[in-house]
Amino acid sequence: MAGEPVRWGILATGGIAAAFTADLVDLPDAEVVAVASRSGESARIFAERFGIPRAYGDWDALAQDADIDVVYVATPHSAHRAAAGLCLEAGRNVLCEKPFTLNLREAEELVALARRSGSFLMEAMWMYCNPVIRRVAALVRDGAIGEVRAVQADFGISGPFSPSHRLRDPAQGGGALLDLGVYPVSFAQLLLGEPADLTAQAVLSAEGVDLQTSALLSWDTGAQALLHCSIVGDSPRTASVTGSRGRIELPHSFFHADRFVLHRDGHAPEEFTADPADGRVDSFRHEALEVMRAVRAGETESPMVPLDGTLAVMRTLDALRERIGVRYPGETGEPALTPA
């Protein structure tokens, strides 16, 4: 399909689906051909808004649409396993929003489905596709600040959210950790890999989800990560990486940063900014372009957002939830263990 437009289907019609689709329709080699919702009326309104030719009132019809090259799954994460699984079983390629699933077991099932069918599958961790974040990771990997000693990252929003809001609803995987904490965790693991040990403390709501969580991750190298997430306080949303010979500081909204400052021993601070040629860094275009590149190349996963990395993050999130005592309805099996 080299040179041909990549045809997208959108599964769900909420705010994140609208934001992604708005960026997608601006790409000259992307074509949004169908949208699905459990509500036919919602799908129709969404289709009219973005000029999408087909609107389905059920997920299976979208999954069975053979004219679709990639399905973007934008449901709440409590439904990711069902929605993405339906598409993979039908032979569709899938980009699935973060957090990838509710827990590691569901994530492993989706990855196994994709690998059996030979379909492309990627978590929509747009931070990993951000050119500025990629440059930070490259500098760290190349030893610009020496050996990494510490990572700090936080993501908090103030709310307030009512008990019925999805962020406080256990049935929808509510809480700060999965919805927001996935960014600090993913940032730390992008730079350091899976931690050897971890501990966490949280404040839980009456419904049993975490209102805010603080975590300390550690690695056998001696590196540590101090991470925080909250749905009851608007935090700085910054990040930093400290090494043996310097540090990197990322500003507010580090997960789609447009700049960072590199401090190196014996040198004046250096500010790096986004290349205007890359377009807006606070858009979803970069992850969409990576998906289309990979699908055109016949790849089944992206080197930018590898599936083993996604599983490692889910393993950490499971372990953190075990530490703070958050379990969602319908979850079974043994409690998560500390990641190896």
What does this structure look like?
There is one protein chain. The chain has 340 residues and is of the alpha/beta class. Helix content is 33%, strand content 24%. Mean pLDDT is 95; it is low at 333-340. The strands form 2 sheets. An 8-stranded mixed β-sheet has the order 8-9-10-7-11-12-13-14, covered by helices on one side. Strands 3-2-1-4-5-6 form a 6-stranded parallel β-sheet, with helices on both faces. The chain is globular. The protein has helices spanning 15-24, 40-50, 59-63, 80-89, 104-117, 126-129, 131-141, 176-192, 285-296, 307-324; strands at residues 6-11, 30-36, 54-56, 70-73, 93-97, 121-124, 148-156, 197-204, 210-218, 224-230, 239-243, 246-250, 259-264, 270-273. The chain is built from 10 helices and 14 strands.
The radius of gyration over CA amounts to 20 Å
Q: Helix proportion of residues, in percent? A: 25-40%
What is the H-and-E element order? EHEHEHEHEHEHHEHEEEEEEEHH
Largest sheet entry: 8 strands, mixed
Structural class of the helix and strand makeup? alpha/beta
Number of discrete helical segments: 10
The coarse silhouette is globular
Q: Which segments are poorly predicted (pLDDT under 50) over 5 or more consecutive residues? A: 333-340
**What is the beta-strand fraction?**
15-25%
Span from first to last CA? 40 Å
Count of individual beta strands: 14
Q: What would you call the quaternary organization?
A: single chain
Give the strand order of the largest sheet, numbering strands 1, 2, ... along the chain: 8-9-10-7-11-12-13-14
Mean pLDDT: 95
